[in-house]
Amino acid sequence: MQEGEEGDKSTSDTVARIPPHCHITIKCTREIAGFNGLSEAVRRLDFSSAVRDVRRFNYICALLELLLGGQRLTHLPGAAQKLLLSMLEQLADHVATSKHNPEALRALAAALGGAREAERRACWGRPLGSRALWRHHDRAIARITRIAQDIRIPEPGPEVMPKLHDLPEECIREIMLRISDHRDLDAASSAWSVMASLCSERRVWRELVLFHFTQQQLSTVLAKDETEVDWKKTFHQLRKLYGLREEAQFAETLSLCRHCKCLFWRSLGHPCIADQCPEYRERLKEAGGPLPPHPVPPAAFLKFFSL
Fold it and tell me: Where found, per UniProt (predicted)?
């Protein structure tokens, strides 16, 4: 009996160690008819844990922002709506506890409230669909909004040293040079005069340009004989022309395995056919080796589903 229990325990431990992943259908054919369900993918990829991971937090926020901004949330099945609202509640609880990224939560709460009001106006003063479901949604939305409004970040006490204002300007500059989002630079400029002075330096915006754009793209807006470059103006010109590297805005994104057509978090890995099947691995070696996984930004992730 004990041996059987130990065997069951080892088996459950092995299953528990399997990283979150989700096989998807890329293209439907006569032989292969598939359908990708958003709620199933969210469960299999363990988005609930991802909201508490500092590396994956911004990816989840961007995904929820896309769902709420285009009012796609109200077009999802009821089970998917409840799952995503549950994710938002978990995200709100995490932000309230950690005191990190409160503005991201407030933006999501505002978008959620806007989607709710738009749905209410769309159908004779009340949302379309099950009243019981929307009562559940209303309670969840009220909790999320209340959590977002109640978050207060206390100022560090005198015992906390050093504070940001105590750091030398060289350290502040190094911090600014590592910011990859131009909106964060603008916010930092409005927060403190020292940061505003540093953000006006050409080097900060030059590094941002070189991070997001290639030399070929840069050559389309810069003249060959141009010596004094306004890097901030150049950055916004390139941003309007080419957009930003979406995958570079997140510490971690979902990836798509090109061999087993599986979505997974790159830092966690996934059980791949290239690792499990010796014959397949030999064929890959003959073909030149395995292909690297393809990054999947939030907008590309939603394209796998019929929304």
Answer: Nucleus
